């Protein structure tokens, strides 16, 4: 974890893989913004009411070599500009404070999503989408709205995609995919059964698979050829999903541009055609 901004996201992405007790220990440590190089393993263990061995185990499950590396990573992270962007919304906040906190939390999600982005995977995803015969998108609820936004952008440059937000329709789509096609699954948690099952079937049929999720170790991510991860810090009022949506939209905007760049002449020509087609619908 060479980029301090990536430490917080890498920890958050692994939290679902912890047991309830391990998760409590991790949360206790993450809440300690006063942690320094002088903070001892014993002190941390006593603060959580667990053994020193348990703290070391949690550190390793979160991707660190041991407690010392975990401690150093947190010190670097909390010293970074992105970590300081987030602050909780309170009942007494003024309108100006609410706006500032919401915007700063979104800025943090963008900074940290960029810090953890797998550029090689991003390039592979762009290539899959560019070369595909058929491009099917799967998502439910808010994730389906993300898929529709991306589908709209691709249509503007002449790249046709299909969005499926019904479990039965997803399975029908996946059953018809071939090695010439690509399936893109959208799920914040990476645990949505209908989306997982559809992507699994698409994979069995030889289609390339892409997962857009917040958790790199989730069941959905483990199925995909490429994983595009967003990250966001949880907030009691905003929730994690709402903030992650901003990061996902920006990440997928970048993917859209990367695909368009692979045949810029065709993209520009199709963009002109689709813009002219809707121009007549505008008044003034």
Automatic annotation (TrEMBL):
It comes from the Bacteria. SUPFAM superfamilies: Homeodomain-like, SIS domain. GO terms for biological process: carbohydrate derivative metabolic process. Residues 125-265 form the SIS domain. Gene3D superfamilies: Glucose-6-phosphate isomerase like protein, domain 1 (3.40.50.10490), Winged helix-like DNA-binding domain superfamily/Winged helix DNA-binding domain (1.10.10.10). Residues 5-81 form the HTH rpiR-type domain. Keywords: DNA-binding, Transcription, Transcription regulation. Signal peptide: none annotated. It holds the Pfam family HTH_6. The keyword S-adenosyl-L-methionine does not apply. GO terms for molecular function: carbohydrate derivative binding; DNA binding; DNA-binding transcription factor activity. NCBIfam families: PRK11337.1. This is RpiR family transcriptional regulator. The lineage of its organism: Bacteria, Pseudomonadati, Pseudomonadota, Alphaproteobacteria, Rhodobacterales.
